[in-house]
Write a structure and sequence with these properties.
The structure holds three protein chains of three kinds.
Chain A (H helix, E strand, L loop, with lengths): L1 E11 L2 E11 L4 E5 L6 H9 L6 E6 L2 E5 L4 E2 L2 H4 L2 E3 L11 H7 L8 H9 L15 H13 L5 E5 L7 H17 L3 E5 L3 H7 L2 E6 L2 E7 H4 L9 E13 L2 E8 L2 E7 L1 H4 L7 E6 L10
Parallel strand pairs in A: 3-9, 3-10, 7-8, 8-9
Antiparallel strand pairs in A: 1-2, 1-4, 4-5, 5-6, 10-11, 12-13, 12-15, 13-14
Helix pairs in contact in A: 3-5, 5-6
Chain B lengths: L3 H30 L5 H13 L2 H12 L4 H10 L7 H26 L2 H9 L4 H9 L4 H17 L2 H7 L9 H10 L3 H26 L9
Helix pairs in contact in B: 1-5, 1-8, 1-10, 2-5, 3-9, 5-8, 5-9, 6-7, 8-11, 10-11
Chain C lengths: L1 E7 L3 E7 L16 E3 L6 E3 L10 E12 L3 E8 L2 E8 H7 L6 E6 L5 E3 L1
Antiparallel strand pairs in C: 1-2, 3-9, 4-8, 5-6, 5-8, 6-7
Classes of the chains: A alpha/beta, B mainly alpha, C mainly beta.
Chain lengths: 290, 223, 117
């Protein structure tokens, strides 16, 4: 169980913001922090991992105090040992893939985990390559594997897939889910992609201006359970075209672009890039064997 | 031709560069990391030799190291070190004089590294020292090389500070740049030319090799 | 599967069919409030008062606005369940002779009605 109760004044280009959070995360959960950029998501991750010091508050993990401003307790990141996957991957450019993983080994740790992880992440063939020669998806797999070397109990993923194309994103989502289950991790993700969040997480916290404004189970959170419609998907608006008296809205769902006809009352409320729910009754779609 | 001034010049440059390398890494590391209020003051002090006439620096060091003064006297009495008009004094003066040429490239190199590199290392349980040696320094190799070459070349070429604090003692403080001046004063142009040509060639070759080795990378770290 | 009767404004009854049953969906309880959604394109319009047709939901209304496009037309109707937008072909508008202020019936098949708890 992770309990965070933190206050921190953050100064950024946009001015001052007070981060004031209370988060409780059960062991083994997959939790997503969701919200606009600058809402304090990354700062929260950094405070949990010890890279940023809160002004006041407490952090306890499984009953052990990691931070307590009253008792002057503040474990350094080296003692907290969370698996942290950075947005820019933070692979060490001077080391090969294998050396990157080996660097993360702890004193006296059994080296067999390196082979195991290289295998698991399908990196064995790339192990002698330097990071600069890898594609984005490969780098991300190295970063994930490297974060797991020290066998952390907590895995932090800061927008891990945002720089990747859709196909790679979907593949790595599966991979992250597999890691989460296999290594029995408590995983905390920052993501903007609603499909990704619903697919991966048990629980979502929405942050706005440094505060949790909403939380809930992932599917309920985005209102996906809010209609009786069974044929439903979440996606992103790609295009809105007017045709005659109606509007045709193109929506990206997974790998596919679908088109939905809409009246102007809905179309006027939409813009390109919006996350939307597309739903229909289970009675309408036709189904054919391919 | 007397080879002694040339030998002395390169000996001085080598020792100075070696000392600077060791001294500058912690300073550059501190400067690239700190949010301390005194950072600008330290940065200014480190950079002073860039803008100050060498004679000013030489003059103050001469005064400070002189046994007539408290500090120089203390050095002399307690440690038996006389820094003025000695090779040791030259080394100390050169280290101070060339400090920015080593510190600035390394600092720039370290600052240009994404902070996530060291943060990733910390979350893996690695100490700051391990992180510096195994992650940060290996990734600023071009900056380190730049620092070494610039300090070396700068020490080879220094004149004012050496003249002020070391004087012109053959075999002890008479380095090539002073020897050239000496020969010119004595209207001995061919000897001056020999020294100059050798200095010119050697520095040219060193710099050329570095540019070739580093490619365009080198230029980024020149202050 | 269930057939659900929804009372709107204490008078009109709308009928919907859903895959859920009271066992699988907790909102399917008598007296529970739900929102009713249906697509503008699924609304049919009739000018006749009584019509033998297998469309379960029939609601009287008055046309308050007609926008005629090349192929499709958009009608706004005032009904006892509120304002309803219907999108039908311009061909039908012509055939039925639909004009502003006309009294008509709107019709929606029961499988087109989505319930939102």
């Amino acid at each position: 169980m992770i309990r965070l109760n933190l206050k921190k004044i953050l100064k950024s280009t946009g001015g001052k913001m007070v981060l004031d959070l209370e988060l409780n995360i059960a062991k083994g959960q997959f939790v997503t922090l969701f919200g606009e950029s600058g809402a304090g998501k990354t700062s929260t991750l950094r405070m949990l991992s010890g890279l940023l010091k809160p002004d006041i508050g407490t952090i306890t993990v499984d009953g052990i105090t990691w931070f307590d401003s009253n008792k002057n307790i503040n474990l350094v990141p080296q003692q907290r040992k969370v698996g942290y996957v950075f947005q820019d991957y933070a692979l060490f450019p001077n080391m090969t893939v294998r050396q990157n993983l080996e660097y993360a080994l702890q004193r006296n740790q059994d080296k067999s985990i390196i082979e195991e992880l290289l295998d698991f992440a399908q990196l064995s063939e790339l192990q002698q390559r330097k990071p600069e020669t890898l594609s984005g998806g490969q780098k991300q797999r190295v970063a994930l594997a490297r974060a797991l070397v020290q066998r952390p109990e907590i895995l932090i993923l800061d927008e891990p897939l945002s720089a990747l194309d859709l196909k790679m994103r979907i593949k790595l989502q599966e991979y992250i889910l597999q890691i989460h289950k296999q290594f029995k991790l408590t995983t905390i993700l920052v993501s903007h992609d609603i499909g990704e969040i619903v697919k991966l997480s048990d629980c979502v916290f929405e942050l706005q201006n440094g505060k949790v404004i909403k939380k809930g189970a992932a599917a309920d959170f985005f209102g996906l359970n809010k209609t009786s419609a069974k044929f439903r998907f979440s996606g992103e608006v790609l295009k809105i075209e007017r045709e005659d008296v109606i509007y045709v809205i193109s929506v990206l769902i997974g790998n596919d672009i679908i088109k939905v006809v809409s009246d102007r009352t809905e179309a006027n409320g939409l813009k390109v890039g919006d996350q939307v729910l597309v739903a229909s009754k289970a009675f309408n779609p036709i189904i054919q064997k391919l | 031709m007397d080879w002694q001034p040339l030998v002395l010049t390169f000996k001085l440059a080598l020792i100075t560069t070696a000392i600077l390398f060791v001294v500058s890494i912690p300073i550059a590391y501190w400067l690239s990391n700190t949010k301390s209020k005194i950072k600008p003051v330290i940065e200014t002090l480190v950079s002073m030799p860039l803008v100050l006439p060498p004679t000013v620096l030489g003059f103050y060091m001469l005064v400070a190291f002189s046994p007539e003064n408290a500090f120089g006297n203390w050095l002399n009495e307690w440690l038996g070190i006389r820094l003025i008009f000695s090779f040791g004094g030259l080394v100390v003066a050169s280290v101070i004089y060339s400090l920015p040429f080593m510190v600035q490239p390394i600092q720039a190199g370290l600052s240009s590294l994404p902070s996530t590199l060291k943060e990733a290392s910390y979350t893996m349980g690695k100490s700051k020292m391990t992180t510096l040696i195994k992650i940060l320094l290996p990734n600023v190799k071009p900056a380190l090389l730049t620092g070494i070459v610039l300090s070396f070349a700068h020490t080879v070429g220094e004149f004012g500070v050496v003249l002020m604090i070391g004087g012109n003692m053959p075999g002890k403080t008479k380095v090539a740049s002073i020897a050239i001046y000496d020969e010119v004063e004595a209207m001995n142009y061919s000897a001056a030319n020999s020294y100059s040509l050798i200095l010119f060639s050697i520095t040219f070759i060193i710099l050329l090799l570095v540019y070739l080795a580093n490619g365009g990378y080198f230029k980024r770290f020149v202050p | 599967m269930s057939i659900v009767y929804v009372e709107v404004d204490n008078q009109i009854e709308l009928i919907s069919v859903v895959i859920d049953t009271p066992q699988t969906a907790s909102y399917l309880i008598k007296g529970n409030k739900v929102n009713v959604l249906f697509k503008e394109m699924e609304v049919a319009i009739s000018t006749q008062k009584e019509l033998d047709v297998s469309i379960e939901n029939k609601i009287p209304g008055i046309i308050t606005n007609i926008e005629i496009g090349v192929l499709m037309s958009r009608l706004i109707l005032e009904t006892s369940i509120g304002e309803v937008v219907a999108i039908i072909s311009s061909l039908s508008v012509k055939q039925l002779g639909l004009v502003d202020k006309m009294k008509v019936k709107i019709m929606v098949k029961l499988n087109e009605i989505i319930l939102a708890p």
